[in-house]
Amino acid sequence: MYLKKIEISGFKSFAKKTDLSFKNQISGIVGPNGSGKSNTAEAFRFVLGEQSMKNMRGKKGEDLIFSGKTGRLNKASVKVIFDNKDRTLDLDYDEISVERSVFRDGSNEYLINNSKVRAKDVVELLTGANIGSSGHHIISQGEADKILSISPKERKSVLEEALGLKSFVIKKQESERKLEKTDENLKEVKIRERVNGPRIRFLEKEVDKIQKSKDLKVELERLYKNLFPHKVDLKNKLSEINKKSEEVFKEKEDKEKEISLKQGDLEKAKENPVDKNKDRKEKEIINLENQLEKFSSEKKELERKLAKNEFDLERYQKELDLFRKKSENTQVQIEEYNKKVVGILEIISKALKTDISKLKFVAEEVLNFLGFQKNGQEKLDFSPEIIEKLKENIQKIKEKISEIQVQEESIFKKIRILSSDSENTTEMISQEIKIQILELEKKLSEISSKFSELNNQKIKILKEIQAYEKEETHIISIFGLEKLQEFLKAEKNIQEENILEKITRTRIILENNGVNFSEDILNEFNQLKENQEFVKKEIDDLEKSKKELNQLIIEVENEIEKRFRAGIEKVNSEFKKFFSTLFMGGSAEIFLIKIPIKNKDDNKMEEFELGLDIKVSLPNKKITGLGMLSGGERSLTSIALLFAMSSITPPPFIILDETDAALDEANSKRYGDMIEKLAEHSQLILITHNRETMSRAGLLYGVTMDRDGISRLLSISFEEGEAFAK
Predict the structure, then answer these.
(1) Architecture of domain 1-137+652-726
(2) E strand or H helix at 549, and its extent?
(3) What whole-number percentage of the chain has pLDDT above 70?
(4) Spatial separation of the C-alpha atoms in residues 542 and 553, rounded to whole Å
(5) Between 152-162 and 631-648, two packed helices, what is the crossing angle to 10 degrees?
(6) d(CA 231, CA 227)
(7) In this model, does residue 422 exceed pLDDT 60?
(8) Residue 363: CB atoms within 10 Å
């Protein structure tokens, strides 16, 4: 990369557009004092991003714009053009132009290849190529001594820039600014987290209560859905109990009438002796015998049915037992068969590398071929419930036979009494009737007890129904009327024990919870929760960023220190050579020193920062510090150091603005030799009065100024002049 041209328009004394092309490695700009030749150096500072007006000999932006006898301009601009075929500048262009303009209102405009950019973009682009607006590669007469007079800390910064470390320093400074900003953001975010915390914790409890209440409502809804189908069951059961009560009540009335009739028979037996009723007695015996015959026939039929039912029961029971055994065996066989199928499938699948949803039929065919059959589940020819029905029938038949036997025994007793010729016949008949009355009264008592039990059940069911109806009020208050209608139409679900108790307990807990189901609470909680999660993520990101920035700063500092220490050794080597050349001997070196930093709290010196100091030794002269050097000696020492810095990490070009003004003829020659050495690595632009220095340039620009105060250029190429002279 090299500097091709600078275009100056309206800048200071250059009222008209002026171009300076730099085709030679060393170019000179000469002219009398006051002609404006040093304005070219300031034009370079300006276009390369200098922000200090002091360094450009002005107080404000409009001081840089031409204002002369012929009038004043409203804008000053400077453009530099670089050859960038080697891509030193990090843009994919063979030629790159950088332009800066300043306007009367003090505003600035920056362009890279005619596209508007920020000042920062220009600085970053040029820093990457070791070019800056000031420092070691733009050195004016007044600044040559500056390297000696500035503080050790500032001197260290100059060396860092000369060593090409400015990009690292900028990176560190940017990282430190980002770190500072990150710390500020982190504090702000943590304050937000702390402010939101108590409110979130309060709302969290409220939302927890709301969620518990919602869960309770869901559970209560489930219970109510099971409650009302049960109420229907209760009403059906009540209807059955009422029907059964009517039947039992009718049976009770019948028994009471039967007892009344028997009591009438007992009164008649006492009034009428037996021997007076012989004919009636015989007729009654015949009637009783007919009843016996009828009971005997009925009992035989029942015994036949009993035998058949018992036979069927035994047969079905055996078939059921056999079926269960076969089912168990079949299940075992099926499981074994399936295991064989799976085993064969795995073998075939591995061998053929094929899916097992595709080879199942192959495995079954293999098993069939080998004689293994998959037995199906057998089915019963009858329903298992028939066995229970048979058992129920057998029990009923046995009960009926038992009743007939009791009635037969009663008839036998009557016949014996009627057939007896004893004098106590009347008494025996009365006694028999009394026994019958007692039996009837016993049955009546059982019926009455049954009737009372049915009444108790009826009362209990009515109370439950009333309790259900009472719950309807609670349902309306909790869920609304529409929900009640839904519950009343709900289909029967799984029967649940103690459902009313569960409902009452759940409802009381819900009422005691006393939570206002406000959507505002949920919305506020969700919004704060979401915000807090975002804040926590922001904190994590910031802490991660802080950690990364700290690590980056450490890495950059280490890299700067590593390169800086290595650079000091190289600069010292060149510094000694240039110094020895200029002073015909002697020695010089730069070295790091520790500078104490005051603690702001207690003013104690607890920390240190590094600075750069200079030590020189002149031939045949004893000095103890830089303050003992004469003006010329300081200039030569400064030049030696600046040249040494520039030779280590050579910038693309160096501008020397009358740095040779104080040199005598002998020193000028040595100065010229050093210039040619520097020119091996960098383009040199020399603003000078010195003839020896001029002689080293391949191209000279002459700057003149007329009475109008406008600088103008003349140029001559020594190479072309020599060719013309020959």
Answers:
(1) 3-Layer(aba) Sandwich (3.40)
(2) helix 519-583
(3) 82
(4) 16
(5) 40
(6) 6
(7) no
(8) 21
CA distances from 177 to 180, 189, 457 (A): 5, 18, 88
Q: State the amino acid at position 78 in one-letter form.
A: V
Nearest CA-CA partner of 627 in 149, 76, 8: 149
Provide φ and ψ at 59, rounded to 5°.
-110, -30
Q: How far is Cα 99 from Cα 112, in angstroms, rounded to an integer?
A: 6
**Coarse DSSP helix, strand, coil percentages of the chain, rounded to the nearest 5 percent:** 65, 15, 25
DSSP structural state of residue 56: G
707 pLDDT more than 60: yes
Q: Average pLDDT of 365-390?
A: 66
Nearest-CA neighbor of 14 among 720, 726, 701?
701
- Local confidence band at 70 (pLDDT 50, 70, 90 cut-offs): confident
User: pLDDT tens digit string along 42-60?
Assistant: 999 999 988 888 888 888 8
Query: What are the structure tokens assigned to 700, written together?
Result: 């000279």
DSSP secondary structure code for residue 107 in this structure:
-
What are the backbone dihedrals phi and psi of residue 714, each rounded to the nearest 5 degrees, phi first? -125, 145
- As beta bridge partners, residue 139 has 656
Burial class (CB in 10 A: 0-12, 13-18, 19+), 328: exposed
Separation of alpha carbons 7 and 77, rounded Å = 8
Place of tokens 């700290």: 550
**What SS3 class is residue 92?**
coil
Single pTM value for the model: 0.52
| 714 pLDDT above the threshold of 50 | yes
Give the sign of the dihedral formed by CA 648, CA 653, CA 659, CA 661: positive
Q: Residue 230 has which token pair?
A: 């049960």
Determine the average pLDDT of the residues in 640-661. 86
What tokens does 186 get?
Answer: 């982190």
- CA 461, 467, 469: angle at the middle one, nearest 5? 105
pLDDT score, position 44:
93
Task: Please write the tens of the pLDDT for every residue from 423-446.
Answer: 456 666 677 777 777 777 778 778
Q: Are 576 and 185 in contact (CB under 8 A)?
A: no
pLDDT digits (tens, 9 = 90+) for 231-260: 666 777 788 888 888 888 887 888 788 888
Hey, where are the domains in the chain? 1-137+652-726
Query: From CA 645, how far away is CA 163, in angstroms rounded?
Result: 7
Summarised one tens digit per residue, pLDDT across range 24-42 is 999 999 998 889 898 999 9
Q: What is the helix (H) or strand (E) element at residue 457, kind and residue range?
A: helix 425-478
Cα–Cα distance for residue pair 683/83, rounded to 1 Å: 12
Read off the tokens for 376: 């199906």
- Answer whether residue 708 shows pLDDT above 70: yes
Residue-averaged pLDDT of the chain: 80
| Kind of pairing between the strands at 683-687 and 26-30 | parallel
DSSP string, 215-284: HHHHHHHHHHHHHHHHHHHHHHHHHHHHHHHHHHHHHHHHHHHHHHHHHHHHHHHHHS-SGGGHHHHHHH
The rounded distance, in Å, linking the Cα atoms of 441 and 86 is: 131
Provide the 10 A C-beta neighbour count for residue 609.
12
Predicted pLDDT at 538 = 80
Residue 68: count of CB within 10 angstroms of its CB: 14
The one-letter amino acid code at 654 reads I
Question: What SS3 state is found at 83?
Answer: strand
Which residues lie below 8 Å from residue 557, measured CB to CB, with a gap of 6+?
172
d(CA 73, CA 11): 9
